[in-house]
Amino acid sequence: MKKIIFLAVVLSINLLHAQGTTQLQITESAEFKDEISVSSGVLAIHTTSKGKTGLIRANKNNFLLDVFDNQLNKIFSKIIESDKKESFDGYVSYGDEIKYITVLSPNKRERIVYCNTFNIEKQTYTQKELFKADVEKGGLFTGRNKRGTNVAISPNGKFIAIATDNIKKNLNSYKVHVFDSETLKLMFEKSYQEDADNYFEPNDLFVDDVATVYPLGKLFISGKSQSKGGVANYEFVLNKLSKDDSQSLKISLDDDLHISSLAMNYYENKLNLVGFYSNERAGNIKGGCNFEINTLAFSVHSKKNKVLPKDVYDDLYGDAKAERHDKKKKELNSFYVDYIVRDSQGNTFLLAEEFYTTQTYISTGMNGGGYWTTTFHYDDILILKFDKTGAINWGRSIFKRATSPSYNAFLKDDQLHVLLNSGKNLTEKSDGRTKVSKGFFESTALYDFTYSVDGEVAYNKIQDNKGNNYYMPFYGTFNADVFIMVSDGVRKKQFMILQ
What we know:
Elements: H1 2-14, E1 20-21, E2 26-28, E3 32-33, E4 44-47, E5 53-58, E6 62-68, E7 74-81, E8 86-94, E9 97-104, E10 110-119, E11 124-134, E12 151-153, E13 159-165, E14 172-180, E15 186-195, E16 200-207, E17 213-220, E18 227-228, E19 231-232, E20 234-241, E21 246-251, E22 258-267, E23 270-278, E24 284-285, E25 287-294, E26 299-307, H2 310-317, H3 319-328, E27 332-333, E28 335-342, E29 348-363, E30 370-386, E31 392-400, E32 407-412, E33 415-423, E34 427-428, E35 434-436, E36 444-451, E37 457-464, E38 477-479, E39 482-486, E40 492-493, E41 495-498
Helix pairs in contact: 2-3
């Protein structure tokens, strides 16, 4: 009994003493019911300038389109029947509309691409066929990473670009289609990176205000392996495509450094590529890098890189181990960029999540039979802040374990907020780390990790989930200084509003 009491005392001491309550204003909408059961998460969400919110979800046979007023009361709902061979493949939103792309696969070879326009203010829905394609290997959108991008809208909302694979039996080829966003008239289509041997893996996509498209990705030297003999088997390439021209630009650091991942950030008419690099092997992370692109000359105007700050290791490994890792500049791996956000001072925040899969063999105990199961791991979060010159200002990380996409991030009053669900009480481990996970018998809570301009973190609880709705930050949206997310549930749901 004494041992049990002692353990309880130790656990109570380890409860994170810095845990507080979020300073964000919290409100919940009225409960609303869905007309059909919706098994998937939120596919798209957008709030108009007049405060109406559109929501798109789906089940096996239908898309469900909803409109909510500025108090988040449901005022419109429409069920769109879908073909079982029709898939959702991305969306863009601008002004009063959400445009989402679906692909119909009538047979093994044929693909038909549609744009579905949901006008939130007018409460209307239309569908238009954009183009048809034949596929010989894979599909139209193969080779995408965890957060792969295949559709983009220009900052002024006038143009939509769709990037597709166009791989044939003896030719690797890729294509973009550019449309007028209002009429959906095809402006131009163009193939790029056509080569019999070299495979291109798209990572990100941007289209500017004059319909110039920039696909960014990895061009593999041989085959599709990330590395060969420990040496990177790819180089990053930025493409520039217009109706009358096609160019490509190699993105590189020094010869002994490998770029792990990059994403595009467009701000004040500047195109920046931000991401991670390694000097050991493809896919590892030693630090952050930033490239500023001169889009007129189509050249690298400046490039910077810096090793991960020690605070990143402190958050992940604890005091003693972090000291050793920082001294050796140990490299991380398996991180993918999720969010790029800018504050009012021109600083850039880059957030990435560790993602990998494992397989486990489950024995049924009958005649030696069994089956394999795949587990998806969405673990640690890495955060880097770049100042407006492209230099790393600070870095932090979140020691986390999850099996599904679980977090979201936004900036408010120049403070970074990271929202996620964890165990009811965050605990501080003996080595100084704060672990974000849920114990077997522990209830959950919704947290707001708030980072100051200097990178100091406050662990703020929004609510205990027991007895309350379970909200899903990953499916939320930040617009007009307000973050909105929806609760789970099959039929009955609510919104939570943070402002």
